[in-house]
Amino acid sequence: MTVMESKDFSYFFSDETNARKPSPLKTCIHLFHDPNIVFLGGGLPMSKYFPWDNLQIESPLPPFPKGIGASPSGSKEDTCHVTVKKNETTKAGETNDIPLSRSLQYGFSQGQPEFLSFVREHTDKIHKMQYADWDVLATAGNTSAWESTLRVFCNRGDTILAERFSFSASLYAAEAQGVNVFPVPLDEHGLIPEKLEEILDNWNPEAAKPKFLYTIPTGQNPTGSSLSDDRKTQIYRIAQKHDFLIIEDEPYYFLQMDAYEQDKSRRVQKNFSTTEEFVASMAKSFISIDTEGRVVRLDSFSKVLGPGTRLGWIVGSKQILDAYKMLHEMTIQNPSGFSQSIVAGTLNRWGQEGFLDWLIGLRREYNEKRDAAIDALYEYLPRSSFININPPIAGMFFTVNIDASAHPEFATTYKSDPELVEQAIYEKVVSSGVLVVPGKWFKSEGETQPPQPASSKAVSDPNNIFFRGTYAAVPLDKLRDGVRRLGDALYEVFGVAK
Ligand SMILES: Cc1ncc(COP(=O)(O)O)c(C=O)c1O
């Protein structure tokens, strides 16, 4: 089968990207590592003056039989030992380790070869890429990769699309760059393709079309929803029809779980006898259905290894990744060298299979926490028709959806304004000793100039408010206690008898 090359999407680039010249110094930096070259060309400190001689790291050993939370004892049986030396004994890419003399040096703005090769193989294993010229680029996590995305594609005044409720840091980053984030309705299954198409079919021809859709397909932040494979295919077709890119921000992709089963006696956790079975169980990604380089995928180790690694990667066409790389040469240069040495040293010893074993273990843990959170919500929240719980199938978040008009003082004290009810509940909940956050904090409200038809922003449930909580951050006993406090607050606010 012939595998196609990606299409040229450079017409989406921002003025900044189009104006950027390659840094001439970066074009010769690779020669620093050529033993035949006496390198007098750049301001690189000698690694002799890096004070670290080696890094000694211990992590649990795949297949993690005691669970991923068990600390390694230090013995050979359950501990993966990594020693990363300072000095290079081989050429870049020849061993699995990134010596400190290289990782702590300038250069390799795409990422260190040993890190990139692991991530490339992982990406192809999971997403089975469908076009030839794709690649990966190391990032300092998705927050930074998103900021880069805005700069690579957007000018002030441009419009992008996003789920009507989306990760507030992403929205604020766009807003600060003068980018309008036009909201697309979503439901408990994520962004609604029919609504997206309707918005674009009726797009005001006087306004520039959106350059891309920013979406969090799995365990969406803040709604906890996950897009089905069918919806993704529909959305991809709409992107082709209306010609825009898709940016999938996927830090929660590997926190996919079994569907919630309320009846505990019928609960069986899915067991995977092979890692292939696990991979086959994963939701389709947008990048996996992309045949033309229209999708840019932002991946992060934050939720699967640790946020402080500040390490992630972007998957996309080489043409698009080049634009990111040239930007990074002027901004982050590259993610932390320590981080790349530690993560690549660990993952290359665990191997692809070992990393998948880790992710399977993580899935098990999150299943348990999600179940505990949803069990507690059903136990402690008022069983009233105006309160709706959506058990998530991925990610870290649950939401409690409330019909604000059910509040006894909706029309009087709160003048039929659902956001005033939302604020009042938030204050009550916090004073009851638990923090869940109001959905309105995540609302995208951008508008084009001239504006879109009013019908494009119409929502079917204007009085629906919601609160986002997480089961990720606390142990199970605290989780139950927090949910109990939330329940008590809601009983009181809505005057429901227990
Ligand atoms: C949708 C989304 N994107 C990005 C991030 C941040 O990711 P990172 O730690 O990789 O910057 C988060 C969460 O913190 C998130 O929910």
Describe the structure.
It is a single chain. The protein has 13 helices and 15 strands. It has 498 residues and is α/β, with parallel strands linked by helices. The protein folds into two domains: 10-23 and 108-362, Type I PLP-dependent aspartate aminotransferase-like (Major domain) (Aspartate Aminotransferase, domain 2, 3-Layer(aba) Sandwich), CATH 3.40.640; 364-493, Aspartate Aminotransferase, domain 1. A seven-stranded mixed sheet has the order 3-11-10-9-8-4-5, sandwiched between helices. Helix 7 (229-242) links the parallel strand 8 (212-215) and strand 9. Helix 4 runs parallel beside helix 5 and helix 4 (142-153) packs across helix 10 (318-330). The longest helix has 44 residues, at 337-380. The protein is globular, with a radius of gyration of 24 Å. The N and C termini lie far apart (64 Å). Bound molecules: pyridoxal-5'-phosphate. Residues 141-143, 167, 216, 221, 249, 251, 300, 302, 307, 312 line the site of pyridoxal-5'-phosphate.
Short description:
This protein is α/β, with parallel strands linked by helices and 498 residues long. It folds into 2 domains: 10-23 and 108-362, Type I PLP-dependent aspartate aminotransferase-like (Major domain) (Aspartate Aminotransferase, domain 2), CATH 3.40.640.10; 364-493, Aspartate Aminotransferase, domain 1.
Count of beta strands: 15
Radius of gyration: 24 Å
- Report the β-strand fraction as a percent range: 15-25%
Q: Number of folding domains?
A: 2
Q: Would you tell me which CATH topology of the largest domain applies?
A: Aspartate Aminotransferase, domain 2
Query: Which residues sit in consecutive blocks of at least 5 with pLDDT less than 50?
Result: none
